Amino acid sequence: MSGTIEILDERKPQILEKGKDNREIVCGKASAAGSVSQRACVFCGSRVVLYPISDALHLIHGPIGCAAYTWDIRGSTSSGPELHRLSFSTDIREREVIYGGEKKLYAALNELINRYQPKAAFVYCTCIIGLIGDDVDAVCARVQREKGIPVIPVHSEGFKGTKKDGYRAACESLFKLLAKDEETPVSPFTINILGEFNLAGETWMIKDYYRRMGIDVATCFTGDARVADVGRAHRAKLNVVQCSGSMTYLAKMMRERYEIPFLRASYFGIEDMSKALYDVAGFFKNDEITQRTRELVQSEVSRLLPQLAEYRRDLEGRTAAIYVGGSFKAFSLVKALRHLGMETVVVGSQTGAAEDYEYLKEITNEGTILCDDANPLELSRFILEKGADLLIGGVKERPIAYKMGIGFCDHNHERKIALAGFEGMLNFAKEVHSTVTSPVWKFSPARMKSKKKT
Ligand code: SF4
Description:
Layout: E1 15-17, H1 42-50, E2 56-61, H2 64-67, E3 88-89, H3 94-99, H4 102-116, E4 120-125, H5 127-132, H6 136-147, E5 151-154, H7 163-177, E6 190-196, H8 202-213, E7 216-222, H9 227-232, E8 238-241, H10 244-258, E9 262-264, H11 270-284, H12 287-315, E10 319-324, H13 327-339, E11 343-349, H14 354-363, E12 369-372, H15 376-386, E13 390-393, H16 398-404, E14 407-410, H17 421-436, H18 445-450
Parallel strand pairs: 2-3, 2-4, 4-5, 6-7, 6-8, 8-9, 10-11, 10-13, 11-12, 13-14
Antiparallel strand pairs: 1-12
The protein binds iron/sulfur cluster.
Iron/sulfur cluster (SF4) is lined by residues 41, 43, 62, 66, 126-127, 158.
């Protein structure tokens, strides 16, 4: 079957096999026409970053179809208000396309702010708004004046670029909410977490690690975040950036304006989770914090390793394909799988940078396929060629795995299981184990044809 799946010529520079192709991978460009990319649009990038602010109003200015993907499908949880789980749209139709949608936007903002009393409002511009040229900035400024809350336009017109441009638009919007609170006291050991969205409560787990170390978290961008938290983030001593693809831009702006340094971290897998905590402890150069961090990591890892060993017995020698949004997560997954005795044979991302792919090349084995901005056919072909037993991805990759007759692990924003932190590593092992060892795959036609082990 794999022999019948052709790769488009235009896509070939964005794919390479380690040990065979001695060149740099091409990345960071618009998706090839006809490729049916797994990438989402600019608006999706903005929405992913801003939606977890749970006391804000999130209004999509555009046709109703753009809002379809937002109805409570995210795993981002809140310990308080849940306004972020409601999906609002101005439902732009032909009439507004001809006469403009500003009146409808103004009316929608007024109605929603009166009804829900949010602490701020984000207005997401979609493709059609960019085309018809509504002055969204002017409407937002007017409503902000009249209602006395920040009303922030997010310029996330889908056609403007890639999902990364949506991240950037979200960062610019968040930047406008900073520095509103100069009063609330902050400790000298305060950090912000950037790029952590509290999927299945992961922010709470990570915050608890920091609490045990003696570190305060001023703001998590944007897991379980409130508008007021964002307002005091400028007074933290360090920014810890997890989802670097989405949040490095904000970290750089904060470094420039507020002189807050930043470091990159990943909370997935044992090494990267431990390193994230040690790096933060190292930044503060405080003996007590260093000692507490050591104790925390030792106790968590010593509890975790024997439990992982049980899963490893069944998984040893199995192989995995990884296709995720940001490549930083892919690094951690390659390492986490090794703890389970599994090697990665295909790895790719929607938004990786050249240096990320170089690092992936370093940490994977000869013969591993690396791909940037892949499409379903390419992923199917590589899975079959390499005989992967598992695909790790998101909602759009799940059907690919099942059609190929292999296990699937959801590592995207829709998941309901915490996979970050030490506890998350154990959940990850359970997930991988249950799907890879499921007896159902031996009935899969694709599997029977390719005579792979089940
Ligand atoms: S590409 Fe444009 S029309 Fe499609 S969902 Fe994104 S913003 Fe809406």
